[in-house]
Amino acid sequence: MCRPLKAPHNDVIALSSVPSNFTQSVLGAGSTEEKGENARLSSFVGAMAIADLVKTTLGPKGMDKILQSMSRGREVTVTNDGATILKSVHVDNPAARVLVDISKTQDDEVGDGTTSVVVLAGELLREAEALVGQKIHPAIIIAGYREAAEAAQRRLQAISLDHSGDEVAFRADLVNIARTTLSSKILTSDKDHFAELAVDAVLRLRGSGNMDAIQVIKRVGGTLRESYLDEGFILEKAVGIGQPRRVENAKILVANTPMDTDKIKIYGARVRVDGIDKVASIEAAEKDKMKQKVEAILAHGANCFTNRQLIYNYPEQLFADAGVMAIEHLDFDGTERLALVTGGEIVSTFDDPTRVKLGECKLIEEIMIGNERMIHFSGCKLGEACTIVLRGASQHVLDEGERSLHDALCVLVQTVKDSRVVYGGGWTETQMSLVVDDLAAKTPGKRSLAMEAFARALRALPTIICDNAGLDSADIVSRLRAAHAAAPDACRAGIDIEKGTVGDMQELGIFESYKAKNSALMSATEATEMILRVDDIIKAAPRQRQG
Ligand SMILES: Nc1ncnc2c1ncn2[C@@H]1O[C@H](COP(=O)(O)OP(=O)(O)OP(=O)(O)O)[C@@H](O)[C@H]1O
Ligand SMILES: [Mg+2]
């Protein structure tokens, strides 16, 4: 018979007589525990510190940060991207880690809005801290925040615009979104150029959303404006000696195979021969093996052979004799991308040509970018394939340029999937804050205080954007609020950063993706809720090894 799992009643009575510091002895040696108010305070402080760290980078006039690695290379990164900054700082505070994670998730999901999400969560926590100070229980704050977030989300949905039916208007939306995303980044001075470039690249994907088909090549030299979009695929490699420099109607065998049977690979291996002619015969036998391999490869009928590994001189010569272009030592990324865009498969055995799928493209030729030779594959089987060649004065500029472009490409791919857009420049935040204020006015009880706090946190975003631009935030944000309150449905007012006033977002072309805004709102609320629920932080030391 099974014994009941429940402990007998008298055990419970025995536990209640345990002294209050009992938990200390439950936790292993070296473990620490923060309880109640202390735990909450340390969460608030940690999370707000992280939000303050990236706060100054928010908006088109936000500042950049220099990140310097303390390890040997002392590598320097100059960036404005919230996710990049947060990824590179090591934080010990658990609540701060939560914010770092939401920023990373935002980066993976939509690519943009990685600063906004952390700043919003920080502001929500700052407001919550004040409410806790007024002796409002976290559970009430959470309930109020949740209702407020739902109302804000409903409003966001209602005010989003969708032009997916009209191709021209939708393209204009995409260009505007790209310009807005790029306007807070290094590419801002050439944002029109890069916005067109990013939209062209994304529209080539025809909705597949496969960003791997867009390759970004960075080459130091020239200026950012000289960057361009190239149809096809570019490989940063050179053609082997004596081989054709141009191949039309190419059939490409993408391989990952060792060609070096001419080396005795086992170090220290000794081959004893009784005459110099035998050495020659070993060499001949090895050469013969290589020749057989090259013949097996040639039997596939490809006129271009690319290998992940080295090809070496003798096989290279054999390929040259057969009129086949051979390209050696591709990197992993290059090999996989080439296989993807030409529709081929990566091959490592060559016994049965019928089972091998060759890649195809119309033309392979050598080109020059800056003063470097590269190989250009055009008319690829995967018509989506394209390459963005970034030029710039230094590697740091190029790296930040690539990150910014990546943000724009990600947002555009998401917008092609979900075509809804909203105005930027504090428009959505003001709209949402108004409905939340409305809800607070109609809600009896302390929850309404939490809702008011939520609306204030939303308005903090346009305030910070103005502050970062050196504008009078109190004046602009209050005017923005008044304009929206006067005509909530028809108002298109947002911050005009250049003039330092309130401007028409439609005319200024400041658009953002609905998905980015929605996910920032929801992630920030969820993270805040999670942090608010904490009343105990236990840090357990790793168990000591015995013996
Ligand atoms: N020209 C502009 N005028 C006014 N506001 C703008 C303009 N361009 C962008 N914004 C606003 O700036 C905010 C975005 O700033 P920013 O790009 O620095 O941060 P993010 O997108 O949250 O994070 P990140 O780009 O680092 O991932 C948005 O709220 C957007 O509406
Ligand atoms: Mg941005």
TrEMBL record:
Main localization category: cytoplasm
The name this protein goes by in its record: CCT-beta
The organism's place on the tree of life at top rank: Eukaryota
Keywords: ATP-binding, Chaperone, Cytoplasm, Nucleotide-binding
Single GO molecular function: ATP hydrolysis activity
Organism from which the protein derives: Auxenochlorella protothecoides (Green microalga)
Record family assignment: Belongs to the TCP-1 chaperonin family.
GO cellular component: chaperonin-containing T-complex
Cellular compartment(s): Cytoplasm
InterPro entries, A to Z: Chap_CCT_beta, Chaperone_TCP-1, Chaperonin_TCP-1_CS, Cpn60/GroEL/TCP-1, GroEL-like_apical_dom_sf, GROEL-like_equatorial_sf, TCP-1-like_intermed_sf, TCP-1_chaperonin
Function: Molecular chaperone; assists the folding of proteins upon ATP hydrolysis. Known to play a role, in vitro, in the folding of actin and tubulin.
